[in-house]
Amino acid sequence: MEMRNGIRRISDTIWEIPQTYKPGMRVPARIIATEELFQAMDAAVFDQLSNVATLPGIVDFAYCMPDGHSGYGFPIGGVAATDPRSGVISPGGIGFDINCGVRLIRTNLTEEEVRPRLNALVERLFERVPTGVGSSGFLKPTTDEFREIVESGSRWCEKRGFASSEDLELTEDNGCSPGAKSEHVSQAAIDRGIRQIGTLGSGNHYLEIQVVKEENIIHPALAKQFGLSAGQVVIMFHCGSRGFGHQIASDYLKLFLRVMESKYNLSMPDRELACAPFESPEGQAYFSAMKCAINMSFANRQVILHRVREAFSETFHRDPAELGLNMIYDVSHNTAKLEEHEAGGVRRRLLVHRKGATRAFGPGMEGVPGRYRETGQPVLIGGSMESASYLLVGSREGRSCFFSTAHGSGRVMSRHKAKQQFNGRSVAQEMKKRGIFVKTASFPALAEEAGAAYKNIDQVIAATAAAGLSIPVVKFIPIGNVKG
Amino acid sequence: MPYRYLEGITTADVAFEASGVTLEEVFRASADAVLQVMLSNPDALHPQVRKTIVIKLETVDTVSRPIETAQCLLHDFLEKLLYFKDAENLLLRASEIKFRQDSRGRLDALEAVCLGEVMDPSRHFLETDVKAITHHHFGIAQTAEGWTARVVIDV
C-alpha cells in the first residue's frame, strides 16, 4: 500500500520509507509498528529516521522500533548498523544517557507478604537509592578509583562486595564493556559523575516494586524457566550513566562537529548526527569513552541493586539470599556495539547503534548467558509508572532488525503539556487508590510521568511480538514506585 | 518572563525560546530557562556562591559569522552551568555577562559572573534534572526587538 511521499506498508508491521524520500539517503528506512502506532507517530520521526539513513556506511535499513518518537539526530527507538571499516560512529545514535538500561530482580516474596510493609519498603528504598536533581550516592571514590570503576564496571563492584558472580553473569556484556580507557574521558566528565554512583537520576527513571498476576503470565513455560509464578513480587529499575555519560556525549559531539567536515569531508543534515569514521582516532576515542560510560552505568545499577538488597533485608528482617533477591537480567538500550550479523546475505561484523532500542538476541546466540541460551536473551521493557512493564525474550526472527526491539512505552505528550494537564499530588493519590504507592523527589516531575503522557505499552509489546522481534513472557503490574 | 517553553519541537524533552534586547539579556534568560526546569522556585536561590565562567572558543577562526560564534558561546555557557550542577551541586543564575573580542575585533569569548548556591531540598523545589544542551534546533536569531535563542535540552 502506497502512502504519502512514497512510504509503503510492506507487511502488517513494516512501513518502508524509500531511499528516494530524501536526497542523500544511502538505504531505505523501516518503521516497525502496527497501523495504530504508525499513525500516531509524530512527523519528525520520518524526517529524523530518513536522516539516519544518510549515515556513511549504513547497511540494510535505518530502523525505528514500535515505541519510536522524535528525539534529535536519531529518533528515540532508532537502530542503525554501519560497516566499521568504511562507516561512521555517531554519538547521536546512542544518546546523551549512554547505557541507560533496565534491571529486573526476582524475589521469593508474594504480594500478600509485601503489601502490609509496602509503604515502609518504598520509604526505605527512597532513602537508600538517591533520586532527583543533585542527588549523590553513598560511595566517595577517589579519582583513581573512579577511573578503575569506569574501566571495569560491575567487576569493580564484585571486588568491593557489591555484586555476586551471578549478578555479572546476568548483566549484558557481563557488566563490563572491554576496551574502556579512561584516558579518553575529560576531567569534566569525571567531575560530573564521581559522586553519582548508586543514584537513579530523574525524568523517566524509576525503581518499581511489581507483581506477577496469574492472568499476566503470557508464556507459562518461559515464565517458569525464569523462576516466575503468580503472586510473586519482582523489582525493576531504569537509569543510566548520569552526568558522566551526559558529559562524554556532549564532549564528543562537539569534537565530531569540529572534525566532521574539515577533516573528514562528511556532511550530515542534522548537527545531532555529527559523526566520524569509526576507525579514525576520534571515532576510536569516542568508542572507548562511550564504553567507560557503559561501565559506569553498569556499576551504577549494580550499586543500586546492592542498596535494594539492603532495603529489602532491613524491611523483612531476612537475609537477601533468603528473600531470593536474584537478578533475572540487565539490559542496555542506549549503546553502540560491534556485533556479528547477516546483512545483504553475508555474515559480517557491524557497529550497531541502538538509541532507545534494546538488544534482543535469539536462542543459541553468542553473548546470551548460558542459562538463557535456549530461551533467548531476556528483554526488559518498562511502561509508564501507572501501567505495566514486561519481560520478553529475543527471537530468531529478530535478525531482520539486527536483533533489536523496543525499550519502553514511548512518550506521546510533551513534559510541559503533561505538567499543565496533571497535578503530581493528585496523580500520586489516584495511583494510591489503585494500589500503587509512589514516593517521589518532586511532584511536578511526577506529573510529567503521568500514564496518559505515554503510548499504551500493551500495543507496543503486541507490535514487537507481531513483528517477531521479541516474545512476551510476563507482564508486571506496579505496586510501589520510587520516582526521581 | 524573557523566555517561554515551546510545544511541538520535542516530545520527550524540553524546548524554550529566550529573548532580549541585547545578546547579554538572551544569555541570562537562557540560563534562567534551563534553571527553571530543575528548580521551580528560582527566587529561592540565594546568591551565596560566586562563579566566574570564562568561555573562549578554540574554533573561532573557522566560524564565519559573529552569530555563529555567539551560538557556540551560548551552548558552551549553558553546558558549563550543567557542569556546576553535577560537579559541585550548584545551581546558578547569570548576574553579569561580558563579551570579549580578539585582536581583530571579532567576538571570541565571554565572561559570565554567576551567583547561586548549593542545592537545598528543604528550600529549593527541585524538579527535573537536565542532562545536556542539545544541538537540535539550537540557534540565535536577530529580530526587530533584539535577539532570540532557541534551545532544546535533554532531560
Overview of the molecule:
The complex is a heterodimer of chains A (484) and B (155). By secondary structure, chain A is an alpha+beta fold. Helices cover 31% and strands 25% of the residues of chain A. Chain A has helices at residues 35-40, 43-52, 111-114, 118-128, 143-152, 154-159, 165-169, 187-193, 220-225, 242-259, 281-316, 415-421, 424-433, 443-448, 457-466; strands at residues 8-9, 14-17, 29-32, 62-72, 74-82, 88-89, 101-110, 206-217, 232-239, 276-277, 326-332, 334-343, 346-355, 358-359, 378-381, 389-394, 404-405, 437-440, 470-483. In chain A, strands 7, 8, 9, 11, 15, 16, 18 and 19 form an 8-stranded mixed β-sheet that branches. In chain A, strands 1-2-3-4-5-13-12 form a 7-stranded mixed β-sheet, sandwiched between helices. In chain A, a hairpin with a 4-residue loop joins strand 1 and strand 2 (14-17). In chain A, helix 5 (143-152) crosses helix 11 (281-316), helix 8 (187-193) runs antiparallel to helix 10 and helix 10 runs antiparallel to helix 11. With 155 residues, chain B is α+β, with helices and mostly antiparallel strands. Helix content of chain B is 25%, strand content 37%. Chain B contains 2 helices and 8 strands; from the N terminus they run E-E-H-E-H-E-E-E-E-E. In chain B, a hairpin with a 4-residue loop joins strand 7 and strand 8 (147-154). Chain B is globular, with a radius of gyration of 15 Å.
Count of individual helical segments of chain B: 2
- CATH architectural name of chain B: 3-Layer(bab) Sandwich
Annotated CATH topology of chain B:
Archease, Possible Chaperone, Chain: A, domain 1
CATH topology annotation of the largest domain in chain A: tRNA-splicing ligase RtcB
Number of domains of chain B: 1
Helical content band of chain A: 25-40%
Assembly state (oligomeric):
heterodimer
CATH homology group of the largest domain in chain A? tRNA-splicing ligase RtcB
**Strand count of chain B:** 8
Give the C-alpha Rg of chain B. Answer: 15 Å
Class based on secondary structure composition and strand pairing of chain A: alpha+beta
Distance between the termini of chain A: 44 Å
* Rounded Rg of chain A: 21 Å
Biggest β-sheet of chain A, characterized?
Answer: 8 strands, mixed
Spans of chain A of at least 5 consecutive residues whose pLDDT stays below 50 are none
